[in-house]
Design brief:
By secondary structure, this protein is α/β, with parallel strands linked by helices. It has one domain (2-200): inorganic pyrophosphatase (n-terminal core). It has helices at 12-24, 38-46, 118-129, 135-149, 159-170, 188-200, and strands spanning 2-5, 29-31, 53-54, 66-70, 91-96, 109-112. Helix 1 packs parallel to helix 3.
Length: 210
């Protein structure tokens, strides 16, 4: 069994990353490692049945053959799932955007990029592979990126984060739904300016470089 998990106290980047990873790993089950953050819990209550996220009590740890960890790199952050790390035959994949830590999960595959959100990394992989993204998924993915980048204002925000939001908007993401679920530091007028900037964003090649 393939299982996707994330850090304790899952936020929207964690949730969106798990949903995106489930599209990259057909048949994989998404499972919180512990409790989710308040905003995420409330969001899931408002959208019952749309996102199938399990709890550890619903998973038989002995049946796991592949563990996909998103938005985390340390065993301490994935709670009970840390107990199966190092088990013979277990394949571990890690996707994360955080800085390196001293005690890192040993993975057979990892994709770590210094971007503003792990969702950005996974959205890029979905687009690269031509995997369809529904408007509902695009909205969730945009929420994940917006939350972890402070609505694209934090210093760690990169061009890839902006590009991911632009692509998601073009795929039908409802940007107006985001403030209802996550706390944004921008007021309404600032968000309008930012939305206009994203809408008008274009990729350019200069001396052969994008």
């Amino acid at each position: 069994m393939k299982v996707i998990t994330t850090h304790i106290g899952a936020d929207f980047d964690s949730l969106a990353s798990m949903v995106a990873a489930a599209k990259l790993y057909p048949g994989a089950r998404a499972c919180f490692s512990g409790s989710a953050g308040r905003n995420v819990r409330e969001f899931l209550k408002r959208t019952p049945g749309r996102w199938e996220i399990l709890t550890p009590s619903q998973i038989d740890m002995e049946e796991i053959t592949m563990l996909i960890v998103v938005d985390a790199r340390s065993p301490a952050r994935i709670a009970s799932f840390a107990g199966i790390l190092g088990r013979p035959g277990l394949e571990v994949h890690v996707y994360d955007h955080h800085a390196a830590v001293q005690d890192e999960i040993e993975a057979s595959f990892s994709l770590i990029e210094p971007v503003g959100a792990t969702t950005t990394i996974l959205v890029a992989k979905l687009l690269e592979k031509g995997i369809p993204i529904s408007p509902q998924e695009a909205t969730l993915f945009a929420m994940g990126i917006y939350e972890d980048t402070g609505a694209l204002t934090f210093g760690a925000t990169t061009e890839k984060d902006f590009r991911a939001i632009l692509n998601l908007k073009n795929l039908g993401a409802d940007m107006t739904a985001i403030p209802a679920h996550i706390e944004l530091s921008l007021d309404s007028s600032e968000r309008k300016i930012q939305d206009k900037m994203i809408e008008n964003a274009r990729e350019r090649y200069i001396n052969g470089a994008k």
